[in-house]
C-alpha cells in the first residue's frame, strides 16, 4: 500500500490518495511494526471508508483488535480517543469493516469517568428495547463520520474544520501512485469545475499505472463494492435526483423521476453483473514459477562390489 502523504515516504504503507482539489494534508499513518505486514494492510483497506475522511480532518487513526472484532482507534488532541467498531458482544461473522452497525465511543485513558457514546447504529437487541434512530443507517460509514464531525466540532477537538476537508477522495488499496498522462494533467493551483470527474480520472490513472492484477482488483473494489463502491453511490445519487424532480409536482418532473430511477436500477444491475470481476481480475496474477530442475545428472545406485574368495580357497587352487 502507498500513502501519498506529504511527509510520508512512498513506501509500502497503506493510505488514501487525494486529488489535487484537496488542500488539507492527511494525518500521519500509524508507526508500528505491523504497518508493513500484508494482514494489517488488508485490514486498513477494509476500514478506509472510515479512516480516510477522519485522517483528512487531521485525526490519527489505527486499526486494533477489540474484544471480538477489529476496531478503529482515533487519537484526539485532548488525550482522549474514539473507538469505532461493531458490537463486540455478541461477536459477529461479518467481515472487518462491513458491520451490521457502528458504535462510536469517546474515552480517556486517565479519566475512566469519561465514557460517551457519540453514535450507535446497531440494532436493538434487548426485549422491548426502543429502536435507535441511527439504526436505520446500519453500516453506512457516511453517517458515522458526520456524527463525529458534529460532536468534535462542539468539543473543539477537530484539528481540521470540515469546510477545509470537503472534496472527493480516492481510496488506495495497495497500488503505487501512477504518473499522470500529459493530456490529462490537472493543475494544482486551481479548483476544477468537475471535481468528481477528476477523482474518477485519478482512479483511472492509478489503474493504468498498476503493475499487477492484484492492484487492479483493489481498484475495481472501489467501484464494485456493493456497500460503499462507486456504482452504489451513483445509484443513490440518481435516486436522490429522481426524488428532487418529483418535488416540482409537474408531469415532466414525474417522468424525469422515472427515468432517473431506471438509471439507478441499471447501475445497480451492472454492479450485480460484475460482482465477481474483482476476484477474476485478482486470479489473473501469474502463478509462481515452478522450481528449476537441478543441472546435475540424476544419481544412480552404485553396483555392489564383487566378493573376493577367501585367501585359503585361493591357496588350495
Topology:
Elements: E1 15-18, H1 38-46, H2 48-56, E2 60-65, E3 70-75, E4 81-85, E5 103-107, E6 115-120, H3 141-155, E7 169-172, H4 195-209, H5 213-224, H6 230-246, H7 251-273, H8 277-282, H9 311-316
Antiparallel strand pairs: 1-7, 2-3, 3-4, 4-5, 5-6
Helix pairs in contact: 2-3, 6-7
What keywords describe this structure?
317 residues, five-stranded antiparallel beta sheet, two-stranded antiparallel sheet, 35% helix, 11% strand
Q: What would you note in describing this structure?
A:
By secondary structure, the chain is of the alpha+beta class. It is 35% helix and 11% strand. The chain has a five-stranded antiparallel sheet, covered by helices on one side. A two-stranded antiparallel ribbon has the order 1-7. A hairpin with a 5-residue loop joins strand 3 and strand 4. Helix 2 packs parallel to helix 3 and helix 6 runs antiparallel to helix 7. The longest helix has 23 residues. The relative contact order is 0.10. The N terminus is likely disordered.
